[in-house]
Each structure stands twice: as structure tokens, then as C-alpha cells.
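Running this now, will post back.
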Amino acid sequence: MTAPQPGRPPSRRRVLGALALGAAGAATAAGPARADTARADTARADTAPAGAPAGAAGEPRLRLPAPTGPRPVGTTLLHLTDTARTDAWAPTPRPRELRARLWYPAENGARGPYAPWMSPAETAHLQAAYFGVPDARLTWPTTHARPDAPADRTRRHPVVLNSHGSGADSAFNTALAEELASHGHVVAAVDHTYDAGEVEFPGRRLEVRDKARVQAMTDAEIVAYRAADVRFLLDHLAGGPLPAGLDTALDLDAVGMFGHSMGGATTAQALHDDPRIRAGAILDGPLFGTSATADQTRPLLLMASAWDSPARDTMWDTLWPHLTGWRRRLTLTHSGHLSYCDLQLLVPQGQPAFAWPPDQLEHFLGTGDPRRAVAAQRAYLTAYFDLHLRAVPTPLLDGPTPHWPEIRFDA
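Update: finished.
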């Protein structure tokens, strides 16, 4: 898949739109190449951490918003092998191999450099295979999280699992994950190897998406396979060795999950399959498999983009009567399918290199202010998981508020 070049429509930019909703027949316009798939927030959305590398003259420098919570943020990577499963997507028979990216509240006074958004090998592959501009000079983001910083162990923190869209990566929801971590949650995002765009393993081994092998499965089979990845990650968090003191920092009686696009479908399935997950949030995702029509008593938040998707809407309409617990259905107005990931901010900043045609920018990212779009998501997801994992009441989820006109309550 190659990203759109100036003057011609994108192909691999059906990136996350065809990525998940495309699988449901919802993608009708050409889009990104890999389309298979609070007040202070907006003021700080273009800030970069002190010490972040500066872009060369004329070189786009991509930035992510600083988290707004009181806690410093740490991050670490886990490399895991599920010996009980043979990897159905690997090119040769081997146990299922996964990576997880964790963000967590760190000890006060944590020092050291900030982690890159993705490794150099991953960003090089992303730039070439996703955006189709291998030779463009770009400075990719530095995060606001310190690698392997000691975890805050003054209390146990709720755990929020995350699943990315098809062809995306765990890093794609960094802005949301860092925000949750800064407010006291541990976010654990799995890379679904071979459905993730690129995953670097120890020894600088880079595994990239194998679209043909993944899509040899039905959508329901793909979702079930990804949900098994999530369960294995949760098993490891409960019993496996963890770095940075995280073994005593996790409250595994308070586990939630969110996902974008096909990651939303994975969230619904994992919530259905695993009673350890107490609450889920689907960000503009479809529904496949047993979770699409099953009764669900645990809380579920549905957040849609303004992208016209009859397939998504039909799936959500079908599920809605089966949700007998807490439920909300919201729309982020003036948004596109990719508004629910870091690309909402990064693509406009990188336009001098990416050169997405204007109609594709509008289709995939909407017409709203990118900083407000991300700030609204941060506010509502934090409030949602605070409510259901920590029993912290909030009026934000009760109905519309003039502070967030971007959020429409549909049910």
C-alpha cells in the first residue's frame, strides 16, 4: 500500500477507515494509504518537552500535546510470547509473539530524556509504507513520557487496555494514553503483530503488516484473534514480570479498555469474553463476531466520528438494545475517522511533506480544530474511566455542555 502522492488520490490512506470500517463495507471514498484501520489542553497542544530535538530549517517538526494531569508519565515496552498459540499470521510457524507499550504514572522527580513516539526503524517504515514519502525530511514527535521511569507506587492504579486499528500501531493513541496516565491510570496497548503496521522486536527485527494473511480470516475471526492477544496481555500483567516497579502499581480489580476502528471491535469482543474488563469504549469502530449482538451489562461508551458510515451506524443500532448497563453514544462533530488517533494532529503538521489532497484531509480528519478534537477526546475518556474504574462522579457524561460543543449526545 502506498500513500497518496500530490495530484493523485491516496491509496494506502484508507489507512484506518478501510482499516476497520472498510472491512464492513463502509469506506466509499479513497483515503489514506493504510486505511484498513481540558481548557488547558488546547493551549498546550503544540508544546514539546524540553530537550526535544529541533527540526532542521524547513523540515516539518511534528508534536503531540502535553498531558494535563498532575502526574509525570513513564513508559516501557514489553515483549511477550504466547507459547500456547501458534501464530496464524506469521510467515513461518512459531508461537504468537506480541509487544505491548505501557504508559503509567511515574514517581515525582523522574528524570532523563523523553521517549520517541516510535523507534527510528518504525518511523522510517511508517513514512515510506504509510505516507509514501520515504525521502521526505521530518522530525517525528518526542513524547512526554520517560522510558522506564520508576512507577508511582504510593497507590495502585487502574489499568486501561488499548487496541489499535488494522494497519496502525500502539503508538497511534499516545496523546490519549499519556493523558490517562497523567491522571493516574496505567495504559497497556498491545501491538497485534502482523496486523500492526510495524513492530520492532529486540535485535532490531522489524515485523510489518501482512494484509493478505490477516484478511484470509473473516472479520469475526480477526476480532476473536485480536481479543486473544488482549487476554494474554492481561494475563501477563496479572502474573508476569514487569519493569519499573509496575508489579505493585497495578489495580487489576479495575480494568477498562478502549480501541479505535478495528481496535474498537476488539474492545467489544474482549469485554464480551473477559469478565476482568469492567468497562469499554469504542472509538469509531465496527462490531463483528459474538459481541455484535450479545447482551452486555457492563458499561460501554460509543464515540463516533462525523464521517458518514451507514455500516457503523447499523452495527451500533443493532447492539444498542443489548446494552443493559451504563451506556452512552456520542459524536465528535466536524471529525473524520482518523480524528480518533494521533494522526489528527500529526498529518496537518506534516502536510509540507505528506501533501494529502484537501478533500482527503477533510474526509479523514474532518474540518474541526485538531487541538480541540483531541482535547475533547481526552476529557471524555478520562471522565469515563474515572467514573467506572474509580467511582469518581462527573457531570460531563450526563449531557451536553457548552464547554465542549464538539461533543454531541446521540443517546
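The first strand starts at residue 73 and ends at 86. More later if anyone needs it.
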